[in-house]
Amino acid sequence: MWELFKAGGWLMWPILACSVLAAAIAAERLWRLRRAKVAPPNLVAQIVHLHRRQRIDADALEALRESSPLGCVLAAGLVNLRHSREVMKEAVEETGRHVVHELERHLNTLGTIAAISPLLGLLGTVVGMIKVFDVITTQGVGNAEVLAGGISEALITTAAGLSVAIPSLILYRYLRGRVDELAVTMEQEAIRLVEILHGERELEEAA
């Protein structure tokens, strides 16, 4: 494997760096974007029960903010509980935008890796072919070993770039879709809470 890596030339190093970074980002985002971590089930019901017992105070709000991204969004609505439904909804939407932005952290980097990895492989192809033609120019076509080395370098870097780009793109699309799904879930839960607390909806209907 090491011999194959060396045969790909110096461009194998940035391709390797891209693969390591992509793997780290994917693992971290897959862990962070778990549904139970982002939008815990029955959180709205728990908040409603606390509200009915008049146990929503500053400490409870702070604990809610720290508990999960959904908790942070719902806490923004609870802070404005004494205001109208429209004010609560605006507060929830504003906080929700910040929370979604946090959920998308590093995804642009993963998308960039998916885009540049095949370009790095293509650059390796070009470099390898330049070496081949340079050998042909100076030594003719008689030195088959040197010609094979240049062609091998070109093919190895191309394969390596694609091997990084394909899974990176799949993971990028998957994680982007998960963020969108979680954003919709948090929006629905926040609207539920606002409507329940304003008496426009029953908790049993929302469950």
Descriptive account of the structure:
This protein has 207 residues and is mainly alpha-helical. It has one domain. The chain is built from 10 helices and no strands. The model has no long low-confidence stretch (mean pLDDT 86).
Could you tell me the strand content as a percent range? under 5%
Write the element-wise H/E pattern from the N-terminal end onward: HHHHHHHHHH
Tell the overall outline. rod-shaped
Q: What is the overall number of helices?
A: 10
- Our measurement of the CA-to-CA distance between the termini, rounded to an integer number of angstroms, reads 55 Å
Number of spatially distinct domains: 1
Return residue spans where pLDDT drops below 50 for at least 5 consecutive residues: none
| Overall mean confidence score, pLDDT | 86
Number of strands: 0
Q: Strand pairing plus helix content: what structural class? A: mainly alpha
Share of helical residues: over 70%
- Determine the oligomeric state from the structure: single chain
Largest sheet data: none
User: What is the CA-based Rg, rounded?
Assistant: 27 Å
